[in-house]
Design a protein that fits this description.
With 132 residues, this protein is an all-alpha fold. It has a single domain (11-127), classed as Orthogonal Bundle (Globin-like), CATH 1.10.490.10. The chain contains five helices and no strands. The protein has helices spanning 11-27, 32-39, 43-59, 79-96, 100-125. Helix 1 packs across helix 4 (79-96). The model has no long low-confidence stretch (mean pLDDT 92).
Length: 132
């Protein structure tokens, strides 16, 4: 009996991805303290927001509205944090899914991490660059 991984195509797949990924993040030695320190006891709300975000990005649910960068702007994070985040995220995608949408998850996460890191570094150099 083979354990074939499907692609990410349903809201249940999104929930599985998000729950598994953030389960890893919460206990990660590098990322756990940062996420738990900011989110505190609001994990259910954060996870619900991430279901909407990734559902919109990956399966066109259209349920997310917001500005994803803003909550990350002042965090004490650097390139090594983004590298770890990407390793956990991509590893989770690969563990659970396979296909074009899974590939899209990888590329969107890479692009998002690159853009967030660039904006954080620019903001640290010149705080006047932050747009509300």
């Amino acid at each position: 009996m083979t354990n074939e991984r499907s692609d990410i195509i349903t809201p249940e797949h999104i929930r599985s991805l998000v729950d598994t990924f953030y389960g890893k993040v919460r206990v990660d030695p590098m990322l756990g303290g940062i996420f738990n320190g900011v989110i505190k006891d609001r994990w259910p709300e954060h996870l619900a927001k991430m279901y909407r975000f990734w559902g919109t990005v990956l399966i066109n649910e259209g349920s997310y509205t917001g500005v994803p960068f803003r909550p990350h702007a002042g965090l004490p994070i650097s390139e090594e944090h983004f590298t770890r985040w990407l390793n956990l995220f991509n590893g989770t995608v690969d563990e659970l899914f396979k296909g074009p949408v899974a590939d899209l998850a990888h590329s969107n996460a890479e692009r998002m991490a690159e853009m967030f890191l660039m904006r954080i570094e620019r903001l640290r150099e010149d705080p006047s660059t932050f747009i509300q």
